[in-house]
Sequence to fold (651 residues):
Amino acid sequence: MLEAALKGKQGYWGWLLFLLTLMGIAFGCYLYQYSEGLKITGMSRDVSWGFYIAQFTYLVGVAAGGVMVVLPYYLHDYKAFGRITILGEFLAIAAVLMCLLFIFVDLGNPVRIMNVIMYPSPKSILFWDMIVLNVYLLLNIFIGWNVLSAERKGVHYQKWVKILIYISIPWAFSIHTVTAFLYAGLPGRHFWLTAIMAPRFLASAFAAGPALLILLCLIVRKVTNFDPGKEQIRTLGGIVAYAFILNIFFLLLEVFTAFYSAIPGHTHSFVYLFAGLEGHAKLVPWMWTSAGFAVVALILLIVPATRRKEDTLAIGCAAVIISSWIDKGLGLVIGGFTPNPFDRVFEYWPTTPEVLITIGVWATGFFVLTILFKIAVSVKEEVGA
Amino acid sequence: MGLDRRRFLKIAGLTTLFGLGGKAAIQILAPGEVNAAVEALPLTEGKRWAMVIDTNKMDEKLMNACIEACHHEHNVPDLGNPKEEIKWIWKEDYHHSFPGQQHNYISEEVKHRNFLLMCNHCSNPPCCRVCPTKSTWQREDGVVMMDPHRCIGCRFCMAACPFGARSFNWGDPRKASKEKNPDFPTNQAYPTRSKGVVEKCNFCAERLAKGELPVCVERANKTKKNAMIFGDLSDPDSDVRAVLHKHYTIRRKPELGSEPNLFFIV
Fold:
């Protein structure tokens, strides 16, 4: 099936070339980081994780979100999603790949990465995260590829694939639960030390993942002869709406507990993010932008007329993506480190090379995603789906 | 021990082959001799090392001297940039040493008093729990160790430490400015670190092995007797136990359950 990726129109090649350029720039920046160390980033001894780990966290959500098309199709026999499960699985592959790359570029000593396997440490959540992410990646590659090649040959996929599919569904929940545990089990980081972290992660994942999938479906319809389907997009819209409402609900629960209990440690990070602390307020405009887009998203997704109309649904989905990206990609990680364990505020802001490397990892993900989607769509066109 | 070199090497080699290590050969051939040699040094007998700092006896000058002695002993360079700063031992005021304990009407003297902080060598260390490569671990005597040769630089331990005791080598410490660090490395007997690894206070494990006190304690006591006390918490007759029995002491963030082994007399 790979040959399908080698045939394409000018726009396809132009897009890939554009992504390759971004990847090249990022690779150059990474070589610089590799030789100089992570001091070329904005991270410090106070905010010791930054943009990279935040993107990683966000993308685990996107990867887990793919299950929102797999689950209804295989567990509830919702036939309409059969048309797009492959898109969900391929999106998950690209997202997990980006996750692994973000972890890699964040390591101070990337050449020693195999130490995680050579000295397995079951007490470390990072060890388990490594396992669940890699297995999820393999599951999606196996399942996606097998189901798609069976579809191409006009036969039913083999029975054993079904077992893997059933495993992959709870597995999707596990990747974001374990990723939440990375944060939620650390003493002394009040912002993260909350039992609702995993549910909140899952809710935002099931909003952001399908929202991105809706936009991708609309693009696929526009640039290819394959139509993912009106009903499919409409059902996904409903899923995004429910998940995003839950996500905002969970966030407000956090705000209540922090401010009604009025325990300083619990409120400080929120105050820093939304109002600024001790004169430091770099993230305040971002967090309010996130809140603004959340309101737009909620309106467009809750009102039936705007949710069912594809133009307004697309705007709503874009708003979900922007809002949840700021929330998780900036607020969660930086907010958790601010104030630091000494109750002091040191602000973090990514540097240019750091941003370019980040863009490069995203470009790599979209490069893989484009090729996978091209293959999937070519098969769909071939069998006349 | 009535054993020729050839036979020793043979048995040592065989035991190594079976994964027992050369020490097993010594245990088989001359039981007790290695342990006896180690036990001859009193400071290596500890079961739970702990430190008490009498902050009434410390002053700015003495604290600076202790910091200087430690950073000299362990090749900690001055990087001149607070973001990249590496610190094994440092000063912090009351409010920021014990956040949550402060109030507006605290005595002026304590309010402005600085405290000497370092790794607490917790009995229940969160950093060791989260490390994905066992690069940081707790010894049987309680010292929380760090292996810079295994660390992958994920910095999970820094997120897990509630005390900000861990520093990361954001750049190459060996490239630290020559102006600020003219005689780096300051101690040829102690290894320098590379970029991309985490480091922290090791309770002077390399000195404990020789039966010497941690260098900060030695330096403090040189100027002021009993300003810092180091010893075995599990030994009811130790100096630290006597001091803890006599004075009211506080620890940083005890509510987190990590059980810090660094105590302060205020």
Chain A touches chain B through 47 residues (CB under 8 Å).
